[in-house]
Amino acid sequence: MCDFSNYITLTETAASQITWCKGCRTFSLSYKCCCASFTEIEMRQFCSVLRELRGENYSYMFNDKPHTIIKGPCGYIGFCLSEEDTIELIRLTSEALSIFQAFKIIYS
Predict the structure, then answer these.
(1) Count of CB atoms within 10 A of residue 64's CB?
(2) Nearest 10 degrees: Cα torsion 90, 91, 95, 97
(3) 31-50 as b/e: b if 16+ CB within 10 A
(4) What is the pTM of this model?
(5) What ranges in the chain are assigned the alpha helix state H?
(6) Helices (H) and strands (E) in the chain, counts
(7) Helix (H, G, I), strand (E, B), or coil: what is residue 39?
(8) In what order do the strands lie in the sheet with 26-31?
(9) What is the pLDDT of residues 17-29, one digit of tens each?
(10) Which residues pair with 62 in a beta bridge?
């Protein structure tokens, strides 16, 4: 496990946070009660999957609202997302990837 000083917070809200660890070179996504780690490629793929979701993908009823279930990078943990969750995660992951790209340009 990396030291806390290796983590850079890229974006956060009251219920979420995306960080980058300089030591292990991974993103950590905390969203509501879910947490997952991604490599840069996995984070880009996750963002792409979120962008491709459409209304028909939300076929699971949870708390009287339609949700979709997508697997996280490790395969055995998934995300149960409403359309509102998906929109928020697209915004967060896009913002984090943009800030990360700026860090790469500035510090390379």
Answers:
(1) 5
(2) 0
(3) beebebbbeeebbeebbeeb
(4) 0.88
(5) 40-52, 83-107
(6) 2, 7
(7) coil
(8) 7-13, 16-21, 26-31, 34-38
(9) 999 999 999 999 9
(10) 65
Nearest Cα to Cα of residue 88 among 15, 10, 9, 7: 15
Please report the pLDDT score of residue 73 as a whole number.
65
pLDDT band at residue 1 under the 50/70/90 scheme: low
51-83, pLDDT tens digit by residue? 999 999 999 999 899 999 987 666 667 789 999
**Mean pLDDT over all residues of the chain?**
90
Burial of 20: CB neighbours in 10 Å, binned 0-12, 13-18, 19+: buried
Do 43 and 51 touch, CB atoms closer than 8 A?
no
Q: Which amino acid is at 107?
A: Y
Tokens 């790469």: give the residue.
104
